[in-house]
Design brief:
Length: about 260
């Protein structure tokens, strides 16, 4: 291997696939993982042809508690060294918390929280030892604002990823390892189609949306600059700044209004 290698989870579509294109364009080899092998293979073929990079595809469902161990074993068996990790896999789980099935919520936490911590814990020591590494945890603007009804655990998991990234950022200063929490807002992707909330997005103005490539490029630039947190898009940066200044009760009232308008709650 003559080039750096980046592992991207949830790489079959959306921000994950955009990260794959950004890293390939920068000359990185790639390891792509997600549940949909056909999507991964199609993307891999596209990027090999466009950028002449090496790409390994590993199918993994991070809802399985054993998936990270299996992925680590695949990495070791292939003799690969991971220089960058993009923890991108995720989804939304709509519904009021008391009305959802706990098994669904547990799986949600496994994918968005436990698997991220586990995979990072496995790969970070090697990065520190080699004196080079990049970790991007794809969080969300939702992790910087008060919680909303429905998708009840989404904001808390993203808030966790932000704090987790900040802690790792401080732990790895001057080690050659950079850690960034990427916080996009509304992004053109399959996210709302998969969780069945696309129709509810009609009230969100176009100024609030970014395409996945713009988000991924911002994340790449932020981690290279070793910024602990990157909020994409100026409207989102304004929102993130305002919620720190405005009274919590007022902001939560606005979140309730938004939930009523967008989610009918």
């Amino acid at each position: 291997m003559s080039r750096r290698l980046c592992l991207i989870t949830g790489a079959s579509a959306g921000i994950g696939a955009a990260f794959a294109r950004v890293y390939a364009a920068q000359g990185w080899d790639l390891m792509l993982t997600a549940r949909r092998t056909d999507r991964l293979q199609t993307l891999a073929s596209e990027l090999r042809a466009a950028f002449s990079v090496q790409i390994w595809v590993f199918t993994a469902d991070l809802a399985d508690p054993n998936a990270v161990d299996a992925l680590a074993a695949d990495i070791a068996a292939a003799g690969l060294t991971v220089d960058a990790l993009v923890n991108n896999a995720g989804y939304g789980l709509p519904g009021l918390y008391a009305q959802t099935d706990w098994r669904d919520q547990r799986i949600f936490l496994q994918v968005l929280l436990i698997a991220v911590c586990d995979l990072t814990h496995k790969l970070l020591p090697g990065m520190i030892e080699r004196g080079y590494g990049r970790v991007i945890n794809v969080a969300s603007l939702a992790g910087l604002v008060p919680g909303m009804p429905s998708h009840t655990l989404y904001g808390p998991t993203k808030s966790f990823l932000i704090k987790f990234s900040q802690g790792l950022h401080l732990e790895t200063l001057d080690s050659g390892v950079h850690v960034t929490a990427l916080c996009p807002g509304f992004t053109y992707s399959e996210f709302h189609d998969v969780n069945g909330t696309r129709a509810q997005m009609g009230g969100v103005g176009p100024i609030m949306w970014l395409d996945a490539e713009t988000v991924a490029k911002a994340g790449y630039a932020a981690v290279e600059a070793n910024r602990a947190v990157c909020v994409t898009g100026w409207p989102n940066r304004i929102i993130a700044a305002l919620v720190k200044l405005l009274p919590d009760a007022w902001v939560m009232a606005q979140m309730r209004r938004v939930a009523r308008r967008m989610r009918g709650i």
